Amino acid sequence: MTQRDDPTDGMSRTGQFVLLASVLASSMAFVDQTALGVVLPSLRDDLQASVTDTQWVVEAYLLTLSAFVLVGGAAGDIYGRRRIFAIGIWVFAAASLACSLAHDAPTLIAARAIQGLGAAMMVPGSLALIAANFPPMKRGAAIGIWSAASGVAVIVGPFLGGLAVEFLSWRWVFLVNLPIAAVALLLVRLRVPESRSPGTAKLDWAGALLAVVGLAAVTFALLEAPRLGWSSVAVWGPGIAGIAALAGFIAQEATARQPMLPLGLFRSAAFTGVQAYTFCFLFAVHGSLFFLPFNYIDVQGFSPFEAGLAMLAVPSLMVLLSRWSGRYADRVGHRLPMIWGACLMTAGFLLFLIPGVDANFWTTFLPASLVLGAGFGFAVAPLTAAALDTVSADLAGLASAVSNMVARVAGLVAIAIMGLILTAGFNTTLDSGLDNLALEPSARSAVLADADRLGGARPPGNLGAAERTAVVVLVKHAFVDGFRAVVIVAALLAALAGLIALFVLPRPAARNDRPSAPPE
C-alpha cells in the first residue's frame, strides 16, 4: 500500500491515537458479544445452569446497555468525552474480570449487567471521540476504519470463542479483554485530549431509570414464565409492573423538557418505518442466532471450535456484502436493498427448517447461513444510512442514537420471546415422546426435571442402554422442533420488515417527510 492509499494519511498523530483507542475499546464489546454465543453451552455445563440462566447472561448485558446507551452518550458531552470513555473502559474491564471469576450463574449475570453499563459509556464514547477529534473532511475516513475494525471483530468473535472453549476455558472470552483495556486506557491517558459541549442538556435520569426498571421487569417475566408458569404472581406481577414502568417512561419522555428519547422524531413516518424495520429485522436475527450454537453443539454434536467456525458464515458474508450494498444504496436509494435484504433473510430462515438431527452441515446449515448472511449484508448498511436520511442533518446524531437503542431493545426482547417459543415446541415434542417411550414415572420425572437445559438435557443414570439412547434422541428431536418454530417466527418477522420497507419507506425521489427542527 502506498502512502497515498493509506486511509490514515493526513491524520494527525493525536487523531491516529484517538482512532486506535476507540477501535480497541469498541472491539472488546463486539468480540465479547459475538464470542459469547459459542461458549454458552460450555458455560451452561460448567456452571450447572439452565438455558434460562444462559439467556440472562446475555440479557443482563443488553438490558443495561439498552437503558443507558443514550445517557452514556449525553454524559460524555456534559462531563467530558475522554473521562466518560475511560470510566466505561474501567467498568467494562473490571466486570470482565468478575465474569471470568464467576463460579455460579447469578454472579456471572450480575457481572454481565455491570459490563453492559460500561459498554453504554464506552461504545458511544468511541464514536464521540472520533467526531470531536477529526475535522469533517477526515471524519468519514476515520469512521470507515472504525466500522471496518468492528466488522472484523464481529467475524473473529465466534472463532475466538470456539478456540477458547476448545483449548482453554470459556473464562478466557472475558479475560482477553483485560490487556486490550489496559492498552486502550494507556492511550486515553497519554494521547487522547478532553472535549465536551458547553451548555449541553442535562441527563434524563428519570427516563433512564424507568426504562431499566420496565425492561428488566418485562424481561424477567418472559424468561421465568416457562419455569414458574404464567399463573404465578412472580411472573405476572413483574410483567404488569414492567409495562406500567414503560408506560411511565413514555409519559416522562413526552413531558420532559430535555428527554432521553425525543418522541418528536417519530412524527416522521419514514423515521418510524425505519425503526420498525430495525426492530423486526434484528428481533429475527438475534432471537434465532442465539439458539443456533446450542443446535450445533447439543444436537449436531459439533465441538465448540467447530461451532465457532460454523457461526462464521453469517457475519462473514454480512461484512463482505455490506460495503457493496452501501454503494448500491447510494445509486438506487435505501428502500430497494432493504426490501431485497428482507426477502433473502426470509428465505434463509426458512432454509433452517431443513436440518434435522445429525444433519449434514454442508448441504443444510451452510446454504441457510449463506442466504441469511447475504440478506443481512444486503440490508444492514442501507438500514444504517436510512436512519440518518429520514431526518435533517442537525438531528443525525440523535437519530443514530435512537436507532442504536431500538436495535439493543430488539435483541433484548427477542431472546426472551424466542426462548418462550423454543421452550413450548421443545416441551410439546418431549411430552408426547415420553408418552410413547412409556418410562417409569420416576425416570420420566427425572427427564422432565432436566428439561430446562433443552438440548443439553440428559437421561437419568438408572435407565438401560436402549432407553438412554431413546431419551437422548428424543431430546435432540424436541430441540429441533423448537428451533424450527423459532425460525418460522423469524421468517415472518423478516417478511414483515420487507413489507414495511415496501409500503412505508419513501422512494428515492420522495424524502420530504423529515423533521427539520429539534422535537419538543
Write up this protein.
The protein is mainly α and 520 residues long. It folds into 3 domains: 13-192, Up-down Bundle (Growth Hormone, Chain: A), CATH 1.20.1250; 205-259; 265-520, Up-down Bundle (Growth Hormone, Chain: A), CATH 1.20.1250.20. It is 78% helix and 0% strand. The protein has 18 helices and no strands. It has helices spanning 13-46, 51-79, 81-101, 105-133, 136-167, 172-175, 177-191, 205-228, 233-255, 269-289, 292-299, 304-311, 313-332, 335-351, 361-389, 396-437, 441-449, 465-503. The longest helix has 42 residues, at 396-437. The radius of gyration is 23 Å and the shape is globular.
Mean pLDDT: 81
CATH topology grouping of the largest domain: Growth Hormone, Chain: A
Question: Count of helical segments?
Answer: 18
What is the total domain count?
Answer: 3
Overall, the morphology is globular
Instruction: Give the tally of β-strands.
Output: 0
CATH class assignment of the largest domain: Mainly Alpha
CATH H level, superfamily name of the largest domain: MFS general substrate transporter like domains
Structural class: mainly alpha
